[in-house]
Design a protein that fits this description.
Elements: H1 12-22, E1 27-31, E2 37-41, H2 42-58, E3 66-70, H3 75-86, E4 90-93, H4 100-110, E5 112-118, H5 122-126, E6 136-140, E7 152-153, H6 154-159, E8 175-180, E9 190-194, H7 195-206, E10 218-221, H8 233-240, E11 243-246, H9 253-262, E12 267-270, H10 272-284, E13 296-299, H11 306-314, E14 318-324, E15 331-334, H12 346-353, E16 358-359, E17 364-369, E18 372-373, E19 382-387, E20 411-419, E21 425-430, E22 435-437, E23 440-442, H13 444-451, E24 457-467, E25 471-480, H14 488-496, E26 507-510, H15 524-530
Parallel strand pairs: 1-11, 3-4, 3-5, 4-8, 5-6, 6-7, 10-11, 10-12, 12-13, 13-14, 25-26
Antiparallel strand pairs: 1-2, 8-9, 14-15, 15-16, 17-18, 17-19, 19-20, 20-21, 22-23, 24-25
Helix pairs in contact: 1-2, 1-8, 2-3, 7-8, 9-10
């Protein structure tokens, strides 16, 4: 028997139309490279997104054509988020922090037809332009410098639209966006997002126990729009009619705090390394910054140290710990507390908030250990595997054999986790970062988070070093706070209060900074290479 529900495609034009008709007066704020503030409304955004869609069709865009963007977070990039897919194209956001050779590889592999680029990012384009072949390049101009030869003004592109735009027929299973993984293991791999997947992810992200957004909110995504759909924040804000604030290229803590305060932001999101200087500034000058009480800080990309969560809580702000991956559109879990949280002790509450949270609606999870399916007991570790309507089932034209999916259709995340009886996921490590000592696993993430709870330690990363007897032992790479003084024995003594003796690092190296990936995560590969000659006796 068939249901009688209307066959209605889940596509991005439905979100754009809803926003334009119902939230036209809402505001979108962008900070430009010169630090000036640009404001316009959802009505302006709606009109210009449709202009972009029409102009791209006039330029010859065909269904499925890829349009690359090399842009910061700003209103024009949001127009591309909707204008490109509403024309039937595929928005391909390029990570401006990647090496020129990686960008060239990604552009060629995706076969990008057009490019839209910020004028202040043209030097990055120059680094790989001769290795790629864009049919047309459009420049978003924030300054008055003349355009390079052969490039066109983004505003002129929009002006070419005649105002007769009609949405093309778009299948909900068609790709609307594309992003490449950071390439930490082998070549970057492409992930194509369907209209249906993005719409369902957007709906789920808006619910109270995820981001909990409404038209009364103001959202500032610090997570880049060129990385993993900015965690779904832009599309969710557009659907709910939330005010949106963009930082542009200014992501230093002073600039971020100024916008959080002046625009009365209620929810923001970024990786832990973004928030470390913000927390420091709020602690050092508590009277200077007047942020909205109860503001939500979504923290993802890597595990948020419990000490950071405690600091935010002490200042009256809420942390939502989130986890996801490029292959997941990207959010998979969020750490909004369940009712049982209220009866926990403070220490239990913070331990819970430090976990990555429970799965979003429609995201299924399982843990696979060495002996098969592992129980949800909060202790048994195994690889986290996921499936759901916005989770990829393959990579785009993979160059090499890919083993990221099981035979029965689950995506292998590579994250080693435990899951407790309440369904809270706790990432203990990446499969490649776990330390196996004498046949037992040591979680580098747990040790790192404990280290960053020390008042004199700014950052810490823990890696494995070879050992003749135990196979591997931990090496702690520690960045001290300014004017701090600790010895390796001091570090070990601090950790001994939290961990068994065999978990303690055999060695501690004090370094100036922890190297980071293009998305702000700790780059342990660089540390492993730096300390490759280390041996523990």
């Amino acid at each position: 028997m068939r249901g009688t529900i209307m066959d209605y495609p889940l596509t991005l034009p439905t979100i754009l139309e809803h926003a334009g008709r119902l939230h036209g007066d809402q505001e979108i704020v962008s900070r430009h490279p010169d630090k000036s503030i640009h404001r316009y409304t959802f009505a302006d955004f709606y009109r210009r997104s449709r202009q972009l869609a029409e102009a791209l069709l006039q330029a010859g865009l065909k269904p499925g054509d890829r349009v690359g963007t090399l842009c910061w977070n700003h209103a024009e990039h949001l127009e591309m988020y909707f204008g490109v897919p509403c024309a039937g194209g595929v928005l391909h956001t390029l990570n401006l922090r990647l090496h020129a050779d990686e960008l060239a590889y990604i552009v060629n592999h995706a076969d990008d037809r057009f490019l839209i680029v910020d004028d202040d990012l043209l030097p990055i384009l120059e680094g790989f332009k001769e290795k790629v072949s864009f049919e047309r390049i459009f420049v978003v101009r924030h300054g008055n410098d003349p355009l390079p030869e052969g490039m066109e003004d983004y505003e002129d592109l929009l002006t070419a639209a005649e105002g007769t735009f009609v949405y093309p027929e778009i299948e909900e299973t068609a790709a609307c966006g594309m992003c490449y993984t950071s390439g930490t293991t082998g070549r970057p791999k492409g992930v194509a997002y369907s209209h249906r997947g993005v719409v369902l992810h957007t709906l789920s992200a808006a619910v109270p126990d995820v981001f909990g957004l409404s038209m009364r909110d103001c959202i500032l995504p610090i997570v880049p729009m060129f990385h993993a759909n900015a965690w779904g924040m832009p599309t969710t804000a557009v659907m709910t009619g939330s005010k949106i604030v963009f930082t542009g290229p200014h992501m230093d803590h002073e600039s971020v705090l100024e916008l959080l305060e002046s625009e009365n932001v209620t929810l923001t999101g970024g990786v832990p390394t973004v928030w470390l200087p913000v927390v420091d500034a709020l602690k050092k000058e508590p009277e200077r910054w007047k942020l909205k009480k109860g503001m939500k800080f979504v923290i993802g990309g890597s595990a948020a140290p419990e000490a950071m969560i405690r600091d935010f809580d002490n200042m009256g702000y809420q942390v939502i710990h989130a986890w996801g991956m490029t292959e997941m559109t990207p959010i998979g879990t969020t750490g909004v507390p369940k009712p049982a949280f209220d009866s926990m002790s403070k220490d239990e509450q913070f331990a819970t908030l430090a976990k990555q949270g429970i799965p979003l609606p429609f995201v299924e999870i399982r843990i696979m250990g060495d002996d098969g399916l592992a129980p949800w007991d909060g202790n048994t570790m195994g690889e986290l595997q996921v499936r759901g309507p916005w989770i990829a089932d393959s990579y785009y034209n993979p160059d090499d054999p890919i083993f990221s999916w099981t035979e029965d259709g689950w995506f292998r995340t590579g994250d080693v986790v435990t899951v407790d009886k309440e369904g809270y996921v706790k990432i203990t490590d990446r499969t490649k970062d776990l330390i196996k000592s004498g046949g037992e696993w040591i979680s580098s993430v747990d040790v790192e988070n404990a280290l960053m709870g020390h008042p004199q330690i700014k950052e810490a990363a823990v890696i494995a070093m070879p050992h003749e007897k135990w196979v591997e032992r931990p090496l702690a790479c520690v960045v001290l706070e300014e004017n701090a003084a600790l010895s390796p024995d001091d570090v070990r003594e601090f950790l001994s209060q939290k961990f068994a003796k065999w978990w303690l690092p055999d060695a501690v190296e004090f370094i100036d900074e922890v190297p980071r990936t293009s998305t702000g995560k700790f780059q342990k590969l660089a540390l492993r290479e730096r300390f490759s000659a280390y041996r523990s006796n």
